[in-house]
Amino acid sequence: MGKSKVAETEAKFTQEEMDLAARHREELETLDDEEEKETLGEEADIDYEAKARETLERKKAKAARKRKNKIARDREKEIQLAQESAEAKKTSARTLELEAINAKLQKAGFMLHEIAADGNCLFRAVQHQLTLLGEQEYSHIELRKNTAEYMRSHIDDFLAFFVHNDKADPLTTFELHCTKIRDTSEWGGQPELLALANLLHRPIWIYSKDSPVIKTCDNPRLSPIQLAFHRFYYALGEHYNSVIPLHR
């Protein structure tokens, strides 16, 4: 082989080696670029997840603070309402009335004995008093029946209580009232107190806020039935309690 041919062959191999090296270099560069992109993508994914977690934690913390603040505000409101309610009770009509009646009773050596508020309070209170006095025991139902019968048999003593300006017939009103007193939980008042005092042959003393002790059919030789009259004891209206010795 001539020198020129050898030189040509060597040049060809050299060019091929150079081309191969160039391709190899390009492949490596391409691979590096792809790896770098993957790395950047992974870093981007990591950053995104971290930011998402951070945002979620911030939201959770904010929500927790809101809940805590709401609980604190609600508690403050409850305390404020309780304080306002306590202050209102101090000056409520019921409280003022109770204080006045209790003061009168304590001065006389007595105290209240609470009676249920079911429309039968007058008759239950009288029933309780009769037990204290050692008298014959009556149920409140029996007292109702006896009271209605006494009023009907002494109509002239009670009819005036039922004369009103509404043009209603007093006798009809009276009869209807007596029926209610006998058969229902109709509240008893002044007519019934008068009837009870007479049919039981006992004076009845009534303590109240604004009046001196009211004594119905008073008799100093007999121990009285003693009751307390309240206008504001319950929201439903007037009420009677029994009265007992202070140091019983």
Question: Notable features of this structure?
Answer:
single chain; 248 residues; alpha+beta; Cathepsin B, Chain A; 2 domains; 5-stranded mixed beta sheet; 7 helices
Characterize this entry briefly.
The chain is an alpha+beta fold and 248 residues long.
Describe the structure in your own words.
The protein folds into two domains: 1-90; 93-245, Cathepsin B, Chain A (Alpha-Beta Complex), CATH 3.90.70.80. Helices cover 65% and strands 12% of the residues. It is built from seven helices and five strands. It has helices spanning 3-91, 93-108, 121-132, 140-153, 155-158, 170-183, 190-200; strands at residues 110-113, 204-207, 214-216, 225-234, 237-245. The protein has a five-stranded mixed β-sheet. The model has no long low-confidence stretch (mean pLDDT 83).
- Tell me, what's the shape? elongated
Stretches where pLDDT falls below 50 for ≥5 residues?
Answer: none
Main sheet record: 5 strands, mixed
Distance from first to last alpha carbon: 147 Å
Average pLDDT figure: 83
Organism: Aureoumbra lagunensis
Domain OTU: 110-246
Biased composition (Acidic residues): 29-45
GO biological process, one term: protein deubiquitination
Task: Lay out the secondary structure.
Layout: H1 3-91, H2 93-108, E1 110-113, H3 121-132, H4 140-153, H5 155-158, H6 170-183, H7 190-200, E2 204-207, E3 214-216, E4 225-234, E5 237-245
Parallel strand pairs: 2-4
Antiparallel strand pairs: 1-5, 2-3, 4-5
Helix pairs in contact: 3-4, 4-6, 4-7
